[in-house]
Amino acid sequence: MIKKLLEKNKMRLAPMAGVTNSPFREMCLLNNSGFVTTEEIDATSLVYNRSIRTKEISSFYAREKPIAMQLLGCDIKIMSEASIILQEMGADIIDINMGCPVPKITKKGKGSALMKDIFETSKLVRSMRNVTNIPLTAKIRSGWNEENENAVEFSKMLEDEGVDAITVHPRTRNQRYEGLSKWELIKKIVAEVKIPITGNGDIKSFNDAKAMLDFTRCNSVMIGRAAIGNPWIFNDNYQKLSDKDKLNKIIKDISNHIELMKDFFTPRNIDLQIKKQLAYYSKGFKNSKELRFKIFRSEEKIDNMIEYFFQNLRENFQTIERNLETTKI
Ligand SMILES: Cc1cc2nc3c(=O)[nH]c(=O)nc-3n(C[C@H](O)[C@H](O)[C@H](O)COP(=O)(O)O)c2cc1C
Question: Are 262 and 134 contained in the same domain?
Fold first, then answer.
């Protein structure tokens, strides 16, 4: 089942804490991303105290299904209990986070710290496998540091323990997001295990995605940072539109995204979330720095800020179109 799902649409959104909430995931799905994954959900919070934040990051629209929900943790009992809770909440796939590099997380043995102890992690995976009757996947890095690049051995262990698919972000934990990701390693893992592999790291365009699929022969790819403020990266049809049609689509999609955010977030959180997304969407604008400054600092009502954003968006596109007109003459 999982292989079919991965290959149905080979490009999909990577989980990103603070970014890939339900409204943004929906934007990516509407632009042809393959199935989406929630951001990391802390297993302890899920089991013991469902804070507003945990509730927010673990909720999803029914129309996002099939959905993967990602768990962060290291305690065998808590992770197993959390897996049961996610299944009951309607997860279609449970993904184990084995890649988070943040010191606050790794100090507790979670995220990429799981890659330091293959034996202990195999016990964790076995226990989760035993209580889970939906596909179980894992998202790994190349290893903890350069001296311990154990992703191949680790992937074999995951396969032996019954994990259904693996995502590989081929950077060590020490690299965080620095340097280039080693696509060569994804290729090696594809050759060494039988379960489907998703490649991830440094895809900045539709063509990069194709290049990773061709080079590594992986089953699918995940796109993270390049999708922030650009859900259209998954949409081949969008790339083929004229500038005018692109502008119309962008305006329609961003308006839709704003409505989704107004519906999804708690009243206290709505304005900040909208401002964050507008800032992401202004990434390519000439005046993006001033625009972001104004959006975050202004005391104006959010609807005025939204109007200001759209006005800037239109002006930026007009410049592009004007330039094209000049070239024609
Ligand atoms: C802001 C941010 C938050 C992230 N949060 C998560 C997360 O919750 N779970 C996870 O598995 N990876 C997380 N990642 C890692 C991404 O999923 C991805 O593996 C990484 O960014 C490399 O892919 P890219 O080069 O396409 O961005 C995060 C990355 C960023 C930049």
Answer: no
